[in-house]
Protein backbone atom coordinates (compact mmCIF):
# COMPACT_ATOMS: atom_id res chain seq x y z
CA UNK A 1 0.00 0.00 0.00
CA UNK A 2 1.35 3.36 -1.00
CA UNK A 3 1.84 5.72 1.90
CA UNK A 4 1.02 9.31 1.01
CA UNK A 5 1.61 10.83 4.41
CA UNK A 6 4.12 13.59 5.06
CA UNK A 7 4.20 14.04 8.85
CA UNK A 8 4.51 11.05 11.17
CA UNK A 9 3.26 12.05 14.59
CA UNK A 10 3.23 10.08 17.82
CA UNK A 11 1.18 10.86 20.90
CA UNK A 12 2.40 11.75 24.40
CA UNK A 13 2.10 8.13 25.51
CA UNK A 14 4.70 7.26 22.88
CA UNK A 15 7.42 9.34 24.55
CA UNK A 16 10.00 6.68 25.44
CA UNK A 17 9.94 5.44 29.04
CA UNK A 18 13.63 4.48 29.00
CA UNK A 19 16.79 5.71 27.32
CA UNK A 20 18.66 3.18 25.16
CA UNK A 21 22.19 2.42 26.35
CA UNK A 22 24.37 1.24 23.44
CA UNK A 23 27.09 0.15 25.92
CA UNK A 24 24.95 -2.96 26.50
CA UNK A 25 25.28 -3.98 22.85
CA UNK A 26 28.73 -2.80 21.70
CA UNK A 27 30.68 -5.81 20.42
CA UNK A 28 33.92 -4.34 21.84
CA UNK A 29 35.20 -2.61 24.97
CA UNK A 30 35.44 1.18 25.10
CA UNK A 31 38.94 2.40 26.00
CA UNK A 32 39.02 3.54 29.65
CA UNK A 33 38.90 7.22 30.63
CA UNK A 34 42.25 8.21 32.16
CA UNK A 35 43.17 10.51 35.03
CA UNK A 36 45.00 13.59 33.69
CA UNK A 37 47.70 13.50 36.39
CA UNK A 38 48.37 9.77 36.75
CA UNK A 39 47.39 8.46 33.31
CA UNK A 40 45.51 5.61 35.08
CA UNK A 41 41.83 4.73 34.60
CA UNK A 42 39.61 7.02 36.67
CA UNK A 43 37.00 5.90 39.18
CA UNK A 44 33.66 7.45 40.18
CA UNK A 45 35.31 9.42 43.03
CA UNK A 46 37.45 11.31 40.49
CA UNK A 47 34.34 12.65 38.77
CA UNK A 48 32.32 13.34 41.93
CA UNK A 49 33.40 17.01 42.25
CA UNK A 50 31.94 17.67 38.80
CA UNK A 51 28.92 15.41 38.32
CA UNK A 52 26.13 13.91 40.45
CA UNK A 53 26.51 10.18 41.18
CA UNK A 54 23.49 9.21 39.06
CA UNK A 55 25.16 10.61 35.93
CA UNK A 56 28.55 9.11 36.83
CA UNK A 57 26.83 5.72 37.06
CA UNK A 58 25.09 6.24 33.72
CA UNK A 59 28.48 7.03 32.20
CA UNK A 60 29.63 3.42 32.75
CA UNK A 61 26.33 1.54 33.04
CA UNK A 62 25.86 -1.63 30.97
CA UNK A 63 22.11 -1.74 31.47
CA UNK A 64 20.36 -1.70 28.11
CA UNK A 65 17.46 0.45 29.26
CA UNK A 66 17.70 3.30 31.76
CA UNK A 67 14.36 4.58 32.99
CA UNK A 68 13.49 8.20 32.23
CA UNK A 69 12.48 9.92 35.50
CA UNK A 70 8.80 10.89 35.46
CA UNK A 71 9.45 14.63 36.18
CA UNK A 72 11.71 14.71 33.09
CA UNK A 73 9.17 12.86 30.97
CA UNK A 74 6.54 15.31 32.11
CA UNK A 75 8.53 18.25 30.73
CA UNK A 76 9.34 16.29 27.56
CA UNK A 77 5.58 16.46 26.94
CA UNK A 78 5.96 20.18 26.17
CA UNK A 79 7.65 19.28 22.88
CA UNK A 80 7.99 15.52 22.51
CA UNK A 81 7.42 13.37 20.58
CA UNK A 82 8.98 15.54 17.90
CA UNK A 83 7.73 15.11 14.33
CA UNK A 84 9.27 12.91 11.67
CA UNK A 85 8.69 14.55 8.32
CA UNK A 86 9.10 13.25 4.81
CA UNK A 87 10.76 15.98 2.73
CA UNK A 88 8.54 15.43 -0.29
CA UNK A 89 9.01 18.92 -1.69
CA UNK A 90 12.79 18.65 -1.36
CA UNK A 91 12.67 15.25 -3.09
CA UNK A 92 10.76 16.81 -5.99
CA UNK A 93 13.10 19.79 -6.15
CA UNK A 94 16.08 17.42 -6.39
CA UNK A 95 14.19 15.12 -8.78
CA UNK A 96 15.58 12.18 -6.81
CA UNK A 97 14.23 8.62 -6.48
CA UNK A 98 15.42 8.71 -2.85
CA UNK A 99 12.96 9.07 0.02
CA UNK A 100 14.18 11.71 2.45
CA UNK A 101 12.96 11.82 6.04
CA UNK A 102 14.00 14.18 8.80
CA UNK A 103 13.45 14.11 12.53
CA UNK A 104 12.83 17.69 13.61
CA UNK A 105 14.27 18.57 17.03
CA UNK A 106 13.91 22.31 16.45
CA UNK A 107 10.39 22.20 17.94
CA UNK A 108 11.81 22.14 21.46
CA UNK A 109 11.30 25.43 23.36
CA UNK A 110 15.07 26.01 23.37
CA UNK A 111 15.19 25.37 19.62
CA UNK A 112 17.31 22.21 19.48
CA UNK A 113 17.80 18.64 20.68
CA UNK A 114 19.94 19.90 23.59
CA UNK A 115 16.96 20.17 25.94
CA UNK A 116 16.68 16.35 25.92
CA UNK A 117 19.80 16.00 28.05
CA UNK A 118 19.63 19.40 29.79
CA UNK A 119 16.38 18.38 31.52
CA UNK A 120 17.76 15.00 32.58
CA UNK A 121 20.99 16.51 33.89
CA UNK A 122 19.21 19.27 35.82
CA UNK A 123 16.88 16.68 37.36
CA UNK A 124 19.67 14.37 38.63
CA UNK A 125 21.65 17.32 40.01
CA UNK A 126 18.64 18.70 41.83
CA UNK A 127 17.88 15.27 43.25
CA UNK A 128 21.35 15.13 44.81
CA UNK A 129 21.08 18.54 46.44
CA UNK A 130 23.23 20.56 44.06
CA UNK A 131 22.49 24.31 44.12
CA UNK A 132 23.49 25.31 40.62
CA UNK A 133 25.18 24.28 37.37
CA UNK A 134 28.04 25.78 35.40
CA UNK A 135 28.56 25.15 31.73
CA UNK A 136 30.00 26.41 28.45
CA UNK A 137 28.14 27.27 25.30
CA UNK A 138 29.23 27.87 21.72
CA UNK A 139 26.47 29.32 19.58
CA UNK A 140 24.25 29.52 22.67
CA UNK A 141 22.06 26.50 21.94
CA UNK A 142 23.32 24.43 24.84
CA UNK A 143 23.33 27.44 27.16
CA UNK A 144 19.69 28.22 26.36
CA UNK A 145 18.68 24.61 26.91
CA UNK A 146 20.47 24.33 30.25
CA UNK A 147 19.23 27.75 31.35
CA UNK A 148 15.66 26.63 30.75
CA UNK A 149 16.21 23.24 32.42
CA UNK A 150 17.79 24.91 35.48
CA UNK A 151 14.83 27.28 35.74
CA UNK A 152 12.37 24.37 35.57
CA UNK A 153 14.24 22.44 38.29
CA UNK A 154 15.02 25.53 40.39
CA UNK A 155 18.82 25.57 39.99
CA UNK A 156 21.22 28.50 39.47
CA UNK A 157 22.86 28.54 36.04
CA UNK A 158 26.21 30.10 35.04
CA UNK A 159 27.11 29.96 31.37
CA UNK A 160 30.57 30.67 29.93
CA UNK A 161 29.80 31.65 26.36
CA UNK A 162 32.47 31.53 23.61
CA UNK A 163 33.35 35.19 23.13
CA UNK A 164 32.90 35.35 19.35
CA UNK A 165 29.36 33.98 19.69
CA UNK A 166 28.62 36.22 22.67
CA UNK A 167 29.18 39.19 20.37
CA UNK A 168 27.80 37.66 17.14
CA UNK A 169 24.67 36.22 18.75
CA UNK A 170 23.31 38.57 21.45
CA UNK A 171 19.82 37.12 21.15
CA UNK A 172 20.80 33.74 22.56
CA UNK A 173 22.40 35.53 25.52
CA UNK A 174 19.14 37.40 26.09
CA UNK A 175 17.19 34.14 25.95
CA UNK A 176 19.49 32.59 28.57
CA UNK A 177 19.18 35.68 30.76
CA UNK A 178 15.40 35.58 30.39
CA UNK A 179 15.48 32.05 31.84
CA UNK A 180 17.48 33.52 34.72
CA UNK A 181 21.03 32.42 33.82
CA UNK A 182 24.22 34.43 34.30
CA UNK A 183 26.15 34.60 31.00
CA UNK A 184 29.89 35.39 30.90
CA UNK A 185 31.94 35.86 27.69
CA UNK A 186 34.83 33.38 27.59
CA UNK A 187 37.81 33.66 27.93
CA UNK A 188 36.94 35.69 31.02
CA UNK A 189 38.95 37.21 33.87
CA UNK A 190 36.78 35.23 36.34
CA UNK A 191 38.83 32.02 36.31
CA UNK A 192 42.51 31.06 36.30
CA UNK A 193 41.91 29.29 32.97
CA UNK A 194 40.41 32.39 31.38
CA UNK A 195 43.10 34.70 32.75
CA UNK A 196 45.80 32.40 31.39
CA UNK A 197 44.37 32.44 27.86
CA UNK A 198 43.84 36.22 27.96
CA UNK A 199 47.45 36.77 29.06
CA UNK A 200 48.68 34.87 25.98
CA UNK A 201 46.12 36.33 23.56
CA UNK A 202 43.96 39.24 24.74
CA UNK A 203 41.98 39.06 21.45
CA UNK A 204 41.20 35.34 21.67
CA UNK A 205 37.79 34.66 20.03
CA UNK A 206 37.41 31.85 22.53
CA UNK A 207 36.56 28.23 21.83
CA UNK A 208 34.47 25.51 23.37
CA UNK A 209 37.67 24.02 24.80
CA UNK A 210 38.50 27.23 26.68
CA UNK A 211 34.94 27.76 27.90
CA UNK A 212 34.83 24.18 29.22
CA UNK A 213 38.01 24.86 31.23
CA UNK A 214 36.38 27.89 32.81
CA UNK A 215 33.09 26.15 33.61
CA UNK A 216 34.87 23.11 35.08
CA UNK A 217 37.05 25.34 37.24
CA UNK A 218 34.08 27.36 38.49
CA UNK A 219 32.32 24.15 39.59
CA UNK A 220 35.41 22.44 41.02
CA UNK A 221 36.27 25.47 43.19
CA UNK A 222 32.70 26.02 44.47
CA UNK A 223 33.04 23.73 47.49
CA UNK A 224 30.35 21.38 46.21
CA UNK A 225 27.66 24.04 45.79
CA UNK A 226 27.87 23.95 42.01
CA UNK A 227 28.41 21.12 39.59
CA UNK A 228 29.36 21.12 35.96
CA UNK A 229 27.19 20.14 33.03
CA UNK A 230 28.38 19.15 29.56
CA UNK A 231 26.08 19.35 26.54
CA UNK A 232 27.70 16.68 24.37
CA UNK A 233 30.56 14.12 24.05
CA UNK A 234 30.02 12.09 27.26
CA UNK A 235 28.25 8.72 27.31
CA UNK A 236 25.40 9.91 29.54
CA UNK A 237 24.65 12.82 27.18
CA UNK A 238 24.44 10.49 24.18
CA UNK A 239 22.24 8.20 26.28
CA UNK A 240 19.70 10.97 26.98
CA UNK A 241 19.59 11.88 23.30
CA UNK A 242 18.49 8.38 22.28
CA UNK A 243 14.87 9.51 22.75
CA UNK A 244 15.32 10.95 19.25
CA UNK A 245 16.15 7.63 17.59
CA UNK A 246 13.69 5.61 19.68
CA UNK A 247 10.85 7.82 18.49
CA UNK A 248 12.18 7.87 14.93
CA UNK A 249 12.16 4.07 14.78
CA UNK A 250 8.45 3.98 15.60
CA UNK A 251 7.78 6.76 13.11
CA UNK A 252 9.70 5.05 10.30
CA UNK A 253 7.56 2.01 11.03
CA UNK A 254 4.44 4.18 10.62
CA UNK A 255 5.87 5.26 7.27
CA UNK A 256 6.37 1.62 6.33
CA UNK A 257 10.04 2.18 5.57
CA UNK A 258 13.45 1.57 7.11
CA UNK A 259 16.46 3.85 6.54
CA UNK A 260 19.32 2.73 4.31
CA UNK A 261 21.40 5.62 5.57
CA UNK A 262 21.22 7.70 8.76
CA UNK A 263 22.85 11.14 8.70
CA UNK A 264 23.61 13.75 11.35
CA UNK A 265 25.93 16.68 11.92
CA UNK A 266 28.60 16.24 14.57
CA UNK A 267 30.13 18.77 16.93
CA UNK A 268 30.62 16.60 19.98
CA UNK A 269 28.37 13.95 18.43
CA UNK A 270 25.25 13.97 20.62
CA UNK A 271 22.41 14.73 18.17
CA UNK A 272 23.81 12.31 15.60
CA UNK A 273 24.27 9.62 18.24
CA UNK A 274 20.79 10.29 19.59
CA UNK A 275 19.24 9.49 16.23
CA UNK A 276 21.75 6.85 15.13
CA UNK A 277 22.40 4.63 18.18
CA UNK A 278 18.96 2.97 18.37
CA UNK A 279 19.40 2.08 14.67
CA UNK A 280 23.03 1.08 15.31
CA UNK A 281 21.62 -1.54 17.65
CA UNK A 282 19.80 -3.07 14.68
CA UNK A 283 23.03 -3.19 12.73
CA UNK A 284 25.07 -4.68 15.58
CA UNK A 285 22.48 -7.10 16.98
CA UNK A 286 20.45 -7.98 13.87
CA UNK A 287 23.04 -7.33 11.17
CA UNK A 288 20.84 -4.89 9.25
CA UNK A 289 22.81 -3.30 6.40
CA UNK A 290 22.42 0.32 7.41
CA UNK A 291 24.95 3.10 6.74
CA UNK A 292 25.73 5.90 9.19
CA UNK A 293 27.20 9.22 8.05
CA UNK A 294 28.57 11.82 10.49
CA UNK A 295 28.91 15.28 8.98
CA UNK A 296 31.45 17.78 10.26
CA UNK A 297 32.83 21.17 9.28
CA UNK A 298 36.09 21.52 7.34
CA UNK A 299 36.96 24.07 10.03
CA UNK A 300 36.88 21.39 12.75
CA UNK A 301 37.27 18.02 10.98
CA UNK A 302 37.89 15.74 13.98
CA UNK A 303 36.91 12.47 12.25
CA UNK A 304 38.24 13.15 8.77
CA UNK A 305 41.54 14.84 9.69
CA UNK A 306 42.09 14.14 13.40
CA UNK A 307 43.97 11.29 15.06
CA UNK A 308 42.53 8.61 17.37
CA UNK A 309 44.37 9.31 20.60
CA UNK A 310 43.96 10.20 24.25
CA UNK A 311 43.37 13.92 24.69
CA UNK A 312 41.94 16.45 27.10
CA UNK A 313 38.37 17.62 26.65
CA UNK A 314 39.35 21.22 27.33
CA UNK A 315 42.11 23.66 26.46
CA UNK A 316 43.95 24.10 29.75
CA UNK A 317 44.13 20.37 30.53
CA UNK A 318 41.81 20.01 33.52
CA UNK A 319 39.46 17.27 32.27
CA UNK A 320 40.12 13.52 32.28
CA UNK A 321 41.69 12.06 29.16
CA UNK A 322 39.29 10.62 26.62
CA UNK A 323 40.29 8.43 23.70
CA UNK A 324 38.81 10.20 20.72
CA UNK A 325 39.40 11.52 17.24
CA UNK A 326 40.95 14.86 18.06
CA UNK A 327 42.56 17.85 16.41
CA UNK A 328 44.44 18.56 19.65
CA UNK A 329 43.13 20.39 22.72
CA UNK A 330 45.17 23.50 21.85
CA UNK A 331 43.52 23.81 18.42
CA UNK A 332 41.09 26.73 18.09
CA UNK A 333 38.74 26.25 15.12
CA UNK A 334 37.99 29.18 12.80
CA UNK A 335 34.95 31.29 13.77
CA UNK A 336 32.40 29.53 11.53
CA UNK A 337 28.72 30.27 12.13
CA UNK A 338 28.01 26.69 13.13
CA UNK A 339 29.44 27.42 16.59
CA UNK A 340 28.20 24.08 17.89
CA UNK A 341 30.59 22.26 15.57
CA UNK A 342 33.70 24.15 16.78
CA UNK A 343 35.08 21.41 19.01
CA UNK A 344 38.48 19.69 18.78
CA UNK A 345 37.31 16.25 19.91
CA UNK A 346 34.37 13.85 19.50
CA UNK A 347 32.20 11.53 21.60
CA UNK A 348 34.26 8.43 22.55
CA UNK A 349 31.39 6.05 21.71
CA UNK A 350 31.17 7.40 18.16
CA UNK A 351 34.97 7.41 17.84
CA UNK A 352 35.18 3.73 18.73
CA UNK A 353 32.39 2.94 16.24
CA UNK A 354 34.17 4.99 13.57
CA UNK A 355 37.47 3.24 14.17
CA UNK A 356 35.76 -0.16 13.83
CA UNK A 357 34.14 0.86 10.56
CA UNK A 358 30.53 1.29 11.70
CA UNK A 359 30.40 4.96 10.68
CA UNK A 360 31.46 7.08 7.75
CA UNK A 361 32.36 10.76 8.04
CA UNK A 362 32.41 13.67 5.64
CA UNK A 363 33.37 17.36 6.04
CA UNK A 364 31.91 20.41 4.29
CA UNK A 365 32.92 24.10 4.09
CA UNK A 366 30.26 26.53 5.26
CA UNK A 367 29.27 28.08 1.89
CA UNK A 368 28.24 24.64 0.59
CA UNK A 369 26.38 24.11 3.83
CA UNK A 370 24.46 27.38 3.59
CA UNK A 371 23.61 26.67 -0.04
CA UNK A 372 21.93 23.48 1.15
CA UNK A 373 20.27 25.33 4.06
CA UNK A 374 18.67 27.86 1.72
CA UNK A 375 17.50 25.13 -0.65
CA UNK A 376 15.98 23.27 2.25
CA UNK A 377 14.27 26.39 3.61
CA UNK A 378 12.81 27.12 0.18
CA UNK A 379 11.54 23.56 -0.22
CA UNK A 380 10.40 22.69 3.31
CA UNK A 381 9.82 26.09 4.92
CA UNK A 382 12.08 25.48 7.92
CA UNK A 383 15.15 27.66 8.38
CA UNK A 384 17.73 25.22 9.78
CA UNK A 385 20.45 25.92 12.34
CA UNK A 386 23.83 26.22 10.57
CA UNK A 387 24.94 23.07 12.42
CA UNK A 388 21.95 21.06 11.24
CA UNK A 389 22.48 22.34 7.70
CA UNK A 390 25.63 20.20 7.55
CA UNK A 391 23.37 17.13 7.76
CA UNK A 392 21.09 18.60 5.10
CA UNK A 393 24.08 19.07 2.77
CA UNK A 394 25.04 15.42 3.16
CA UNK A 395 21.42 14.25 2.76
CA UNK A 396 21.05 16.27 -0.45
CA UNK A 397 24.31 14.85 -1.82
CA UNK A 398 23.16 11.34 -0.95
CA UNK A 399 19.85 11.98 -2.73
CA UNK A 400 21.67 13.32 -5.79
CA UNK A 401 23.89 10.22 -5.83
CA UNK A 402 20.74 8.08 -5.75
CA UNK A 403 19.55 9.93 -8.84
CA UNK A 404 22.90 9.64 -10.61
CA UNK A 405 23.11 5.90 -9.92
CA UNK A 406 19.41 5.40 -10.65
CA UNK A 407 19.12 3.56 -7.32
CA UNK A 408 16.47 4.68 -4.82
CA UNK A 409 17.19 4.63 -1.12
CA UNK A 410 15.69 5.78 2.16
CA UNK A 411 17.58 8.62 3.81
CA UNK A 412 16.95 9.69 7.39
CA UNK A 413 18.65 12.73 8.86
CA UNK A 414 18.46 14.69 12.07
CA UNK A 415 17.37 18.31 11.78
CA UNK A 416 18.87 19.13 15.16
CA UNK A 417 17.62 22.71 15.48
CA UNK A 418 16.15 25.80 13.87
CA UNK A 419 18.21 28.80 12.80
CA UNK A 420 16.02 31.67 13.95
CA UNK A 421 18.88 33.07 16.03
CA UNK A 422 21.31 32.72 13.13
CA UNK A 423 19.81 35.18 10.69
CA UNK A 424 22.97 37.31 10.61
CA UNK A 425 24.79 34.29 9.19
CA UNK A 426 22.10 33.85 6.53
CA UNK A 427 22.35 37.55 5.75
CA UNK A 428 26.10 37.24 5.24
CA UNK A 429 25.61 34.22 2.98
CA UNK A 430 22.85 35.86 0.92
CA UNK A 431 25.06 38.91 0.36
CA UNK A 432 27.87 36.66 -0.87
CA UNK A 433 30.13 37.60 2.03
CA UNK A 434 30.42 34.29 3.84
CA UNK A 435 34.06 33.13 4.01
CA UNK A 436 35.13 29.47 3.82
CA UNK A 437 37.78 28.14 6.13
CA UNK A 438 39.64 25.19 4.72
CA UNK A 439 41.30 22.61 6.87
CA UNK A 440 44.16 24.42 8.65
CA UNK A 441 46.71 21.60 8.32
CA UNK A 442 49.64 23.41 9.93
CA UNK A 443 47.72 24.55 13.00
CA UNK A 444 46.35 21.08 13.54
CA UNK A 445 49.84 19.60 13.19
CA UNK A 446 51.07 22.04 15.82
CA UNK A 447 48.15 21.21 18.13
CA UNK A 448 48.67 17.46 17.71
CA UNK A 449 52.23 17.90 18.96
CA UNK A 450 50.64 18.94 22.29
CA UNK A 451 48.76 15.64 22.78
CA UNK A 452 49.36 14.13 26.23
CA UNK A 453 51.61 11.10 26.55
CA UNK A 454 49.87 8.19 28.24
CA UNK A 455 51.30 4.91 29.54
CA UNK A 456 50.79 2.05 27.04
C1 LIG B 1 25.07 21.94 19.65
C2 LIG B 1 24.42 21.63 18.40
C3 LIG B 1 24.98 20.70 17.51
C4 LIG B 1 26.29 20.02 17.72
O1 LIG B 1 26.39 19.26 18.90
P1 LIG B 1 26.26 17.68 18.88
O2 LIG B 1 26.59 17.28 20.27
O3 LIG B 1 27.25 17.15 17.88
O4 LIG B 1 24.88 17.36 18.51
C5 LIG B 1 24.27 20.42 16.36
N1 LIG B 1 23.11 21.03 16.07
C6 LIG B 1 22.56 21.95 16.89
C7 LIG B 1 21.27 22.60 16.50
C8 LIG B 1 23.20 22.27 18.08
O5 LIG B 1 22.65 23.16 18.89
UniProtKB/TrEMBL annotation:
SUPFAM superfamilies: Tryptophan synthase beta subunit-like PLP-dependent enzymes. GO terms for cellular component: cytoplasm. InterPro entries: Trp_synth_b-like (IPR006316), Trp_synth_b_CS (IPR006653), Trp_synth_beta (IPR006654), Trp_synth_beta/beta-like (IPR023026), TrpB-like_PALP (IPR001926), TrpB-like_PALP_sf (IPR036052). PROSITE patterns: TRP_SYNTHASE_BETA (PS00168). The keyword Acetylation does not apply. Pfam families: PALP. GO terms for molecular function: L-serine hydro-lyase (adding indole, L-tryptophan-forming) activity; pyridoxal phosphate binding; tryptophan synthase activity. It catalyses: (1S,2R)-1-C-(indol-3-yl)glycerol 3-phosphate + L-serine = D-glyceraldehyde 3-phosphate + L-tryptophan + H2O. The keyword Amino-acid biosynthesis applies. Keywords: Amino-acid biosynthesis, Aromatic amino acid biosynthesis, Lyase, Pyridoxal phosphate, Tryptophan biosynthesis. Its EC number is 4.2.1.20. Residues 77-417 form the Tryptophan synthase beta chain-like PALP domain. Pathway: Amino-acid biosynthesis; L-tryptophan biosynthesis; L-tryptophan from chorismate: step 5/5. Its cofactor is pyridoxal 5'-phosphate. The modification N6-(pyridoxal phosphate)lysine is found at residue 114. It is an enzyme of class 4 (lyase). NCBIfam families: PRK12391.1, trpB_rel. The beta subunit is responsible for the synthesis of L-tryptophan from indole and L-serine. Belongs to the TrpB family. Tetramer of two alpha and two beta chains. This is Tryptophan synthase beta chain. It comes from Thermoflexus hugenholtzii JAD2.
Amino acid sequence: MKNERTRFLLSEEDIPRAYYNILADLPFELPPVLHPATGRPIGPEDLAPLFPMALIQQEVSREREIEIPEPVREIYRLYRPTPLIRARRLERMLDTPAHIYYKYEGVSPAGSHKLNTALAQAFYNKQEGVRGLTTETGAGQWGSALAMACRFFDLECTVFMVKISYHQKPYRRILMETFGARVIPSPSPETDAGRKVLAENPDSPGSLGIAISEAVEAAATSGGRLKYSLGSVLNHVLLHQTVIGLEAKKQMEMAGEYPDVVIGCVGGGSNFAGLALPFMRDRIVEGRPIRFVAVESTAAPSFTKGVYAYDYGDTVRTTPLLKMYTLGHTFTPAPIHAGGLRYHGMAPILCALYEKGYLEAVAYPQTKVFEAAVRFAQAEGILPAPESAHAIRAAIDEALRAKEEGRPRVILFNLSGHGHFDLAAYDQYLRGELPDYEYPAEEVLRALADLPRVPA
